[in-house]
Amino acid sequence: MASRRAADELIASGSVRVNGKRPPVTGLEIDPDQDVVTVDGRPVKPPSKHRYVMLNKPLGVITTSRDESARTTVLDVIGQEGRLGHRLFPVGRLDADSTGLLLLTDDGDVAYRLTHPRYKVDKEYVVTVAGVPRSSELNALREGVKLDDGMTAPAEVEMMRATTGARDSGRAELRVVIREGRHRQVRRMVEAIGHKVLGLRRTSFGPLRLGRLKTGGWRVLSSGEVIALRRGTGLDVR
Question: Is 40 a catalytic residue?
Answer without folding.
Answer: no
